[in-house]
UniProtKB/TrEMBL annotation:
Residues annotated as domain Acyl-CoA dehydrogenase C-terminal: 244-364
Domain Acyl-CoA oxidase/dehydrogenase middle residue range list: 124-214
GO terms for MF: flavin adenine dinucleotide binding; oxidoreductase activity, acting on the CH-CH group of donors
Lineage: Bacteria, Pseudomonadati, Pseudomonadota, Alphaproteobacteria, Hyphomicrobiales
PANTHER family: ISOBUTYRYL-COA DEHYDROGENASE, ISOBUTYRYL-COA DEHYDROGENASE, MITOCHONDRIAL
Domain Acyl-CoA dehydrogenase/oxidase N-terminal: 12-88
SUPFAM superfamilies reported for this sequence: Acyl-CoA dehydrogenase C-terminal domain-like, Acyl-CoA dehydrogenase NM domain-like
Protein name from the UniProt record: Acyl-CoA dehydrogenase
Keywords for this protein: Flavoprotein, Oxidoreductase
Amino acid sequence: MYMGDIAGIDYVTQALAQDFARTAAHHDATGAFPFDNIERLRQANLPGLVTAREFGGREAGLAQALAVVNTIAQGEPSTALVLAQQYLFHAQLRRNPNWTEAMRAKVARSAVVDGAFANNFRVEPDLGTPVRGGMPATIARKVDGGWSISGHKIFSTGAPVLTWNAIWARTDEATPRVGTFLVPRGTKGLTIVETWDHLGMRASGSHDALLEDVIVPDDHAVDIRLPAAWAEVDPAAAAWPALLFATVYDGVARAARNWLVTFLKTRTPANLGAPLSSLPRMQEAVGEIDALLQTNRLLLGLADKVDQGASPPPHESFLAKYTINANAIAAVQKAVEISGNPGLTRGNPLERHLRDVLCARVHSPQADSVLIGAGKMSLGVGAG
């Protein structure tokens, strides 16, 4: 179990990351979900790290959540992404006034007592990501005492272990509302279809979820609103996902950097008679990688402002995400470039880090949306 102070949590997460790294290649090669890793997180009481203190959680801020996720990502990033989604869910739960107190308590306590994981299922085959607009095709129809939900969700990270599936759907009312319907694991009509087979983040279990007349009680419609009510983005609500997702891929880049440093120190070509680390060209390359990752560390430091109640405007959090991701990708690509064939050899982890870090580009908001939004802010161009 983790200790009560930050140093204790850091020690535990570093030990876990080292263990997870030993099996990361297996999970990547097979695409097998890291059930053992999730159980280790539960044993360390990490699922409840961000959960509100009133329900037994630690109520950690964004900075501490980033530190844990980043460290775990250096060991096995798919596990870190599942944990990042958990922390995002519980951070949202702490701030959202629309949940009933009974449902808030039930979900929050389950994270602390049972290590229950949760995630939001928002993306659909036709809709794509809701961030780009549009109404979900998943429909919630009112029935006696509750709702009947039918639809198809994709890229549902952590699906094999989630206790709580938060389904983004629209109502069948004359004036549709849209929002979150909470579907517990094992509910009749909910089927997880194992479709995830990607180039990177292969162990994340981001499968499809099919809902066929899934019945949930009234109080499981935890946050449904008119579409216009979702338009305004709270600065803290923007910063949490932006930095949580970005820190996963910064962690991948740090693992790649560490492998490269060890490789350069230990690789001694016969014609050189000295380690590759003695070459100025290699020293310059590592310096370039370190510069990219130092910039990332400074940008991730925005979490301190969020924790102090001084969150940056949403477009600044999104720009930080964009920059961190771009730097992480550039750092891994430089490591591959400078290491040559060994970097692309499947027996070494660098090619896996390259495939994993490229997945940074898919998380919403994506690069074009971030840059257009920031450009509009600077130019004073209206959303219309």
